[in-house]
């Protein structure tokens, strides 16, 4: 039986005034993983309101088990207010004091222990409140799973102390270039330019940080330029991707799409070269539809079929 994945964090609704779209980086990841057929336990909390119903509908649509889904009576389901400028730019307001800030640790632990996941995924936004942060710590203390941290920094909703603690708890960390620059500023002697991610100075500082936090791997996504993978055993692999989607719509959730295939490859024993290439391709394709996850769930089977037809590399 294939190992399961547990995902802890926010499930929320992006409110554009004209429409509401279900999101939240951890929930995007959980939905993608479920789309690929993996057993997933999503640990989150919603309210008994209209936005909560939208999230429940997504659990049903992706056939996600609801063992980790908590409902708080009278608590507001997480939301983000999105304002679209005349130039097409977006301004986000992440609403404070939401249901996902109050995840119950006892119920969360019961759900995760029942699933016995091989990989445990978490981020930083759902740690902004002490209640959910304590619930996460309880899970991390008990799990023997590989711990995958998607840093996913959100200005005004995370501080350096939470980042430091999260890095200490993690085995594998995924960041984008901007987040890597922030980590350099906090934890490294120099802050090298990441235009050339494969230069010696970037590699040196990344490895020093990995050593200090006892990380087994660091993954850096670089948008259309692909991704870089560094491991504690000395591996340095880059895949420069396939560029952006031929029909670009938006890049919302592209990092979550990358994460899903990266973890899928780890669970299914793909080589890292193949894993990075497939993760980059899936992330690029996700920029071709609106929102973080596809409406047509049959696309997951098509990707799996396409990958199964790729020649085996000796």
From TrEMBL:
The keyword Nucleotide-binding applies. It is an enzyme of class 2 (transferase). Its EC number is 2.7.1.4. Transmembrane segments: none annotated. Gene3D superfamilies: 3.40.1190.20. InterPro entries: PfkB_Carbo_kinase (IPR050306), PfkB_dom (IPR011611), Ribokinase-like (IPR029056). GO terms for molecular function: ATP binding; fructokinase activity. Signal peptide: none annotated. Keywords: ATP-binding, Kinase, Nucleotide-binding, Transferase. It comes from the Bacteria. Belongs to the carbohydrate kinase PfkB family. This is Fructokinase. It comes from Pseudoduganella umbonata.
